[in-house]
Amino acid sequence: MKGLVWMGAAGVAVLGCVVFSGGVQAAETVKIGSFLSVTGPASFLGEPEKKTLERYVERLNTDGGIGGRKVELVVYDDGGAPDKAATFAKRLIQNDGVDILVGGTTTGTSMAAIKVVELAGVPFISLAGGIDIVEPVKKWVFKTPHTDRMAAEKVFADMKTRGISKIALVSEDSGFGKSGHDQSLKVAANHGIEIVADEVYSPKDPDVTAQLTKARNAPGVQAVFNFGFGQGPAIVTKNYKQLGIALPLYQSHGVASKEFIRLAGAAADGVRLPAAGLVVAGQLPATDPQKPVVTAFKADYEAAFKTEVSTFAGHAYDGLQLAAAAISRAGGTDKARVRDELEKTSGYVGTGGMVTMSATDHMGLSPAAFHMVEIRNGDWVLSD
Amino acid sequence: MWKSPRTGGLAVLVALVTLAPLGFPNAYFYDVAVNALFNATLCVGLNLLVGYGGQISLGHAGFFALGAYGSALLTGRYGLPPLAALLLSAGVVGALAFVVGRPILKLKGHYLAMATLGIGIIIHIVLKTESAVTGGPDGLGVDAFSVAGLTVSGDQAWYWLAAVLVVIAVWLSLNLVDSPVGRALRAVHGSEVGAEVVGVDTTGYKVLVFVVSAVFASVVGSLFAHKNGFITPDIGSFFRSIEVVTMVVLGGMASTFGAVVGAVLLTLLPQFLASFEDYEAMVLGGIMMGTMIFMPKGLLPSLRLLLAKRRRTP
């Protein structure tokens, strides 16, 4: 009997937890849902995204909301776990009744949520880089960041203008590096670039001189291209200097943060990389349509949070602006109409570049959205 | 007769999983419940090894992930029917557990923990780096689960499947524990030397229970993959292994229902604490610490002990 009583008590407790009513929603508010990797390995992307969304939703509200309706933001932290992201996407749609989703910090969490989103028919603007998110085009899915393929294309185009055709690719075996590696291999031939060495390291490797030595000794190599983010590329850059390799070193947009320069120190001098306009906001020519947007965002963000603005914050800002503009053009939150309006986005100037979407392009950025940047004396110098 | 957990406890479990959906207002609740029941099944299997066998495994997420990837690849790439893929994956995982189990289970304490940890990490690394096969860190899409032309689709269908699964798992576990095998296992847990002296093939039983729990993990992994429709190597990460062990320990080791309670609680808690936002991790940590300090035997056994004490001193 004792056992039975306990089973019963435990069961009631569990049921009590399960029966729990969803949030009550006022009919007038526009509900924006977001699942972000605020904690976990991708937290340095998710955290600025969350802060940005919160700040600019508040800004929208003080400016009178969208079409006179107040905006409500619901954010959940998926910790970078795709299965949690899928569950939170379901929760936002089914339980919180959001009108649109802006979120998905990593490619993995975004991809996991896509199934839920497509089934439910809710517009979703992803903040992750992977090209799989919008290729093939999915009816309800859009994204704001540049893809790794665009970064590779930008780098290869720059190499070509400098007469480089044989390169060594050194990439990280993490999600970002791996995907960048695959995309680089795919588009290299289109730009007349031959990859003569293909080396891989782990994000936590304390030393990559072995891989770099192999890359340097590849026959005919003219430059080295490193795809990774976090501290890996900083170690690559330092080892590169220590080995005294004189070939040009290219990095991906994954290192476009001041943290990289701090980590790599003097070794970072001369490194070239593709970066969004936000990184070099102050140096953009006055004629650049992006200039007012990025300088204003940078100034506002840095004044509010006392930290340097990152491109990830910019992705969240762009996602929110795109959503707000589409809802306002649609004249309401009817999901199908908002989706159609998102697809019709044209000439939106954001932190990532100029966005013009179409039925076949749910990202809408052109390669011109990237600028070639060189690191000189510990700072970014625009060089295209 | 109802006093025995094999009948009474099981009846309560059946009643609970049958009645619980009455309190589900929408599909999201079904989704969370399915995850909770999957974790419960996984933990019931792991509890056999940890709770009854007294062995530790910090690599169980690896077996879970292997089952998931096995099903994903066999159905997606080789066109096998999902049920056949599930069974084949479980067979392969069982064989793998058998092969690595024999040398590993000779180790004790920290060394055993480290060896199983190593296996889990190796599986995780292989899934992550062999991107030509597994899709790499970006993950892999998985087809729907269907048996004999019937496709399991929608959260309700998955809920009932998961409910049947957890009841079967609990029933199997309860029977195993009360069988000669179960008694031998508990003898091993109590004292390996003692068990050997009275003629128990300790290594044999340890390997057996290791294989059984790995197969449980693989089956749940396969179903999880089909239900989610998308998997990444992180389902086999070290943290995931720790998470399932925590569920077993929190619920109460050597208690099949404890494992179920622990798994359900630890799956639901983060969902309810999500509204705490920044304080989520702190509150969760506080709850776990409190439980471990005041109920070191785990939730269910401690509660049972408390009640027994109350009864004796009215």
UniProtKB/TrEMBL annotation, chain A:
Domain Leucine-binding protein: 29-374
N-terminal signal peptide: none
Top-level taxon of origin: Bacteria
Signal is among the record's keywords: yes
Key word Kinase present: no
Keywords: Amino-acid transport, Signal, Transport
InterPro entries per record: BCAA_transport (IPR051010), Leu-bd (IPR028081), Leu_Ile_Val-bd (IPR000709), Peripla_BP_I (IPR028082)
GO terms, biological process: amino acid transport
PANTHER family to which the protein is assigned, alphabetical: BLR7848 PROTEIN, LEUCINE-SPECIFIC-BINDING PROTEIN
Annotated family: Belongs to the leucine-binding protein family.
Protein name, entry field: ABC transporter substrate-binding protein
Phylogenetic classification of the source organism: Bacteria, Pseudomonadati, Pseudomonadota, Alphaproteobacteria, Rhodospirillales
UniProtKB/TrEMBL annotation, chain B:
GO MF term (any one): branched-chain amino acid transmembrane transporter activity
Domain of life from the UniProt record: Bacteria
Subcellular location: Cell membrane
Gene Ontology CC entries for this record: plasma membrane
Membrane topology: Multi-pass membrane protein
Transmembrane stretches, start-end: 80-99, 111-127, 157-177, 207-225, 245-269, 281-300
Broad class of where this protein is predominantly found: membrane
Pfam families: BPD_transp_2
Keywords annotated in UniProt: Cell membrane, Membrane, Transmembrane, Transmembrane helix
Residue ranges that the Swiss-Prot or TrEMBL entry lists as coiled coil: none
Protein name: Branched-chain amino acid ABC transporter permease
Taxonomic classification: Bacteria, Pseudomonadati, Pseudomonadota, Alphaproteobacteria, Rhodospirillales
